[in-house]
Amino acid sequence: MKYFTFKELLHSEVALRNNIVNLPPRNKVVQVYYNLTILVDNLLDPIRERFATPMIITSGYRCERLNKLVGGVYNSQHMKGEAVDFWFPSFSHKEMIEAFFEIAEEFDFDQLIYYKKKGIIHISYSIKNNRHQISMR
Length: 137
Prior knowledge:
This protein is an alpha+beta fold. It is built from five helices and five strands. It has a five-stranded mixed sheet.
């Protein structure tokens, strides 16, 4: 983990505003932190280096309560520490779309989603099986 910290991967403005402690349950702490490390080492650090610009994580790990509050799916990879949503603050909307397609071509991932209205990329990584699912919403 070269460019990212657990603190920023667990941070959530929504959780803070709603007095939610966004931490994994005791019985899943080790697995969540392991998954976050694998996600960063295999995707986030290499993507950060590829585009040579800082990334802002808007949503990393989510506890179950936070995931429900933000409308996440019941089996969200965010709750396992396998997914993040991010954007490049120095990129235009067009550059974010271009980055999305470059990531799709160059990296091994489970899911890659571009949220057009928000200009945010969702990416996940699974230790078991990366499905390479790509979509724009």
